[in-house]
From TrEMBL:
This is ATP synthase F(0) sector subunit c. It is a multi-pass membrane protein. GO terms for cellular component: proton-transporting ATP synthase complex; proton-transporting two-sector ATPase complex, proton-transporting domain. It comes from the Bacteria. Belongs to the ATPase C chain family. The chain crosses the membrane at residues 60-82. It is found in: Membrane. Coiled coil: none annotated. Residues 29-82 form the V-ATPase proteolipid subunit C-like domain. One of its GO terms (molecular function) is lipid binding. GO terms for biological process: proton motive force-driven ATP synthesis.
Length: 83
């Protein structure tokens, strides 16, 4: 009787672990997609800004790189928090 109850508890625990793994994978996917979208938007707006004012290329490049690094950092943070 005890062996059956232990098996039922193990099965219930396995289902909980499997569902948390699925939720973690979805969280990682959303974090990665958010970072990719953020980097794409920053890049497109930086190109737009340089097209409007070519003399500000250096400042725009610096700000764009910093903003992209922050967006990627949040994406990487989402990967670690989801685990």
């Amino acid at each position: 009787m005890e062996l059956i109850s232990m098996a039922q508890e193990a099965a219930a625990h396995g289902a909980a672990v499997a569902s948390s793994g699925i939720v973690g994978n979805i969280t990682q996917a959303v974090g990665g997609a958010g970072a990719a979208i953020g980097v794409g938007l920053i890049g497109s707006k930086a190109v737009e800004a340089v097209g409007r004012n070519p003399g500000a290329f250096g400042n725009i490049l610096t700000l764009g790189i910093i903003a992209m690094a922050l967006a990627e950092g949040l994406g990487i943070l989402a990967f670690f928090v989801a685990r």
